[in-house]
Design brief:
One of its GO terms (molecular function) is metallodipeptidase activity. The chain is 40% helix and 13% strand. The chain is an alpha/beta fold.
């Protein structure tokens, strides 16, 4: 079972899949993307929908993208399954489909009304990240120089997420906001895509204190396949292995998984992609949404962990490092599924 705690299902070669002005209407989930996902062994993936950054009205844009994803899944019932429960992930695995978990990477769309969380939950959202890189009304993102903590409104939103049994995702949050949310939440929380700051000191990575406290409260930490895993910005598969090993040492083997922050389908034309990437990095800088470690010549993925073989390659590398088969299985998906059972199950 392979569960990607944050990733994509689109074919990035077919259009602007992840650009600063893209929406779910721009995603191309074609036969190649679906074939690659199946070939990779992917069981389920948390896909980002709704407002993250840009000039869209956050709440309305998010509702629109939920509708788009509902239509995408309805058009591919033989290949895709909307995930509402952990058992839906198991069902996707049994039926050879890919489970699609609706997740947000910003909670700015709650506006000033924590009651919107119930609306999002009713529409199928299962994971809500409190902040992106900048601050919002809930708290500080990792690039907010003020280093503020969880705000009173942020506490109200965490309470609403707990009540609705949605995952509280602390990826991208500032350290104080992260620690405040861990302490305030009455349910375990997650950091679905990050690296370890003890290995690479960049704001997008999490300190040992954050990682440890998430795990001590029964939460989940996903390690990404991103350039932030190496100070040079040119991360390799070996860096992913190193960050996974450190996270397991800090959190224990029952609380760590993968959240690649990327699609399964590989980029075909890197020269064309670099042109597009430079435009995206400039737009992110313009809007204040970028992060330290991003650059026009820094690929936002790990080049030797792309394409349909990425998960098997990682498993082989972990096996080469002496990891037991059951530990590898936990990291590749079983730990996320166990966390989903703890959070999404009805009381």
């Amino acid at each position: 079972m392979i569960i990607n705690a944050l990733g994509g299902l689109d074919n990035p070669n077919a259009g602007l899949a992840d650009g600063p002005s893209a929406t779910s209407r721009d995603l191309v989930i074609d036969e190649r993307a679906l074939a690659d996902a199946r070939a990779s062994g992917l069981t389920a993936v948390n896909v980002t929908l709704g407002y993250v950054m840009g000039d869209f009205p956050p709440f309305e844009h998010t509702l629109d993208e939920i509708s788009v994803w509902d239509d995408l899944i309805a058009a591919r019932p033989e290949s895709l399954l909307k995930v509402l429960t952990a058992d839906d992930v198991r069902r996707a695995g049994r039926e050879g489909r890919v489970g699609v978990i609706y997740g947000l990477q910003n909670a700015v769309q709650t506006g000033d009304d924590p009651g919107r969380v119930a609306t999002l939950a009713e529409l199928g959202v299962r994971i809500v990240q409190l902040t992106y890189n900048p601050a919002n009304q809930l708290g500080s993102g990792c690039m907010d120089a003020s280093g503020g903590g969880l705000t009173p409104f942020g506490r109200d939103v965490v309470d609403a997420l707990n009540e609705q049994r949605l995952m509280v995702d602390l990826s991208h949050s500032g350290e104080r906001t992260c620690l405040d949310a861990i302490a305030h939440s009455t349910r375990p929380v997650s950091i679905n895509h990050t690296g370890c700051r003890a290995l690479t000191d960049l704001p997008r990575n999490k300190t040992d204190a954050e990682l440890r406290q998430v795990a001590e409260r029964g939460g989940f930490v996903g390690v990404y396949f991103m350039p932030f895993l190496n100070p040079s910005g040119r991360a390799t598969a070996e860096d992913v292995v190193a960050h996974l090993a450190h996270a397991v040492n800090v959190c224990g083997e029952d609380h760590v998984g993968i959240g690649t922050d990327g699609a399964v389908t590989a980029i075909d034309d890197l020269d064309e992609y670099r042109v597009r990437l430079a435009e995206e990095v400039a737009e992110r800088a313009r809007t204040g949404s970028g992060a330290t470690g991003e650059a026009p010549d820094t690929l936002p993925f790990v080049p030797d962990l792309t394409g349909p073989d990425q998960f098997r390659r990682l498993a082989r590398l972990l096996e080469r490092e002496g990891w037991r088969e059951d530990r590898i299985a936990k990291v590749m998906g079983a730990n996320f599924l166990a966390f989903a059972d703890r959070i999404w199950a009805a009381e």
